[in-house]
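User: For my dataset I need records formatted as: sequence, then structure tokens, nothing else. Please produce one.
Assistant:
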Amino acid sequence: MGLPRYYTREQAARLAQIRPDRLRRWERSGLFQSETAWVQNGRPTVYTFRDLVTLRALVLLRDRHHVAPRELRRVTEWLRRHRDLPLSAVRFSVSGRRVFFSDAVDQVTRAGAHPEQTAVHLDLAAIEADIARKAEVLGRRAPEASGRIVRHRGVVHAQPVFDETRIPVALVRRMIEEGRSPDEILALFPSLTRRDIDAARQWTSAGVA
């Protein structure tokens, strides 16, 4: 089973090791934004794998290296401008609470000269590998969970979700209504099954979980 292309807010917070309320504050302040277009009033927000790696890097820069929010915004903006660059090719250097960027051939792209003495290097490839490992474990489900829709207090604000996941049924229903095929949805969420898609379709018609 491959890794999901999209993750819910709760999954993103868990994998990036950030509190959901802190993630919301960062989004409101513009410090971080998902690269997807799935951000609309009252609808589930989803995040890409790249979002998770970026978010985890920001958390480490802030909590371990005390980089100021203003500098973190520069990191976010730089990664957004260079979204075509593989994260495994990006390296951050932290010196004096300032962040310098370099690509695979050590081309420093931040304004100013490369710091003569760099205190710490942050390797995005290592972050990427760690999140991939955790995401794979997160996606495993028991066979009997397939096709079941449940609600749990404290899980995605008690929205209906597919059993043993945090994937809101409303999100998949929305995709179905937009004309996405089952194959497309399963490619985005490999932990789901065709029974889940059928359950979401029936839930859409019935309006109940």
